[in-house]
Write a structure and sequence with these properties.
CATH superfamily: Nucleic acid-binding proteins
Number of strands: 6
Strand content: over 45%
Helix content: under 10%
Number of domains: 1
Structural class: mainly beta
CATH class: Mainly Beta
Number of helices: 0
CATH architecture: Beta Barrel
CATH topology: OB fold (Dihydrolipoamide Acetyltransferase, E2P)
Order of helices and strands: EEEEEE
Distance between the termini: 75 Å
Shape: globular
Length: 127
């Protein structure tokens, strides 16, 4: 299942080579949520680490991600559970040009019709 969220790229970290066959890169997304700002950490793995290269900190981005979870049992026999927000695509938010609105037209002329007039104007004139 994939999710999408928009926010400001708050911080991006360098790619870290964990093993010969595995690398990851983390970044923080700033999201406005009511009265509080949320700083949420995402990770990119393998060939997806490079998707941040064209984005600057402070820029507005759309992040496409998946929820990933796993269990890990330590030497002491206790099991811990981890949840990761694994991003797979980061796009710049494009600013749409303002929409021009056409003036409302009430027909073929600029004068309101009797049907558009308030009820008092629909009465017969006294002369």
């Amino acid at each position: 299942m994939s999710f999408e969220i928009k926010g400001k790229l708050y911080k991006k970290f360098d790619t870290v080579q964990i093993k010969d066959t595995f690398r990851k890169r983390e970044f923080i997304l700033e999201i406005e949520s009511g009265a509080y700002t949320q700083l949420i950490k995402y990770q990119l793995i393998q060939d997806r680490c490079d998707v941040l290269n064209n984005h600057e900190e402070g820029s507005e981005v759309n992040v496409f991600f998946e929820l990933k979870g796993r269990a890990w049992t330590g030497r002491d026999g206790n099991t811990s559970y981890f949840t990761n927000l694994q991003a797979w695509k980061v796009d710049a938010v494009s600013v749409a040009p303002p929409q021009q609105q056409a003036p409302a037209s009430s027909g073929s002329n600029d004068f309101p019709s009797a049907a558009d007039a308030p009820p008092a104007m629909n009465d017969d004139l006294p002369f």
